[in-house]
Amino acid sequence: xxxxxxxxxxxxxxxxxxxxxxxxxxxxxxxxxxxxxxxxxxxxxxxxxxxxxxxxxxxxxxxxxxxxxxxxxxxxxxxxxxxxxxxxxxxxxxxxxxxxxxxxxxxxxxxxxxxxxxxxxxxxxxxxxxxxxxxxxxxxxxxxxxxxxxxxxxxxxxxxxxxxxxxxxxxx
Length: 172
Description:
- By secondary structure, this protein is α+β, with helices and mostly antiparallel strands.
- Helices cover 28% and strands 34% of the residues.
- It has five helices and eight strands; from the N terminus they run ββαααβββαβαββ.
- An eight-stranded mixed sheet has the order 1-2-3-4-5-6-8-7, sandwiched between helices.
- Helix 4 (115-129) links the parallel strand 5 and strand 6 (134-139).
- The longest helix has 15 residues, at 115-129.
């Protein structure tokens, strides 16, 4: 197992609640699907750029089959009713040597608590250790919250192929 496969850290949300940031595990499938079910239509559209009412088995397999080399995924877990549940997630996928695309989703009840920032910080650490040089993000213009997270880290606007999407890049 690589270090990123065992990655785990404890953090605090803005409201003081504890949260665990850790690597996505094969056994997380049901909890991940439950988290998606708790995520509003608008939030899912901001993440996937289309209205998502569900995911195919192929899409689920893609999101769950992480190799921890070219595809890294972290989840954010909060305690609810005495058990930890996934309340957000972030991942990067290497799309060419030294570069990876990064994306996040946080369930609606936990938005505004700093989870996107925490996931970004931890994924950036993993990406640097993996020798990546640049992270790329594509964000819908109306997704002000995610654009704010990326701007905190120094992502810069870049010309992209789709004028309907804000293309951002961050040099590690």
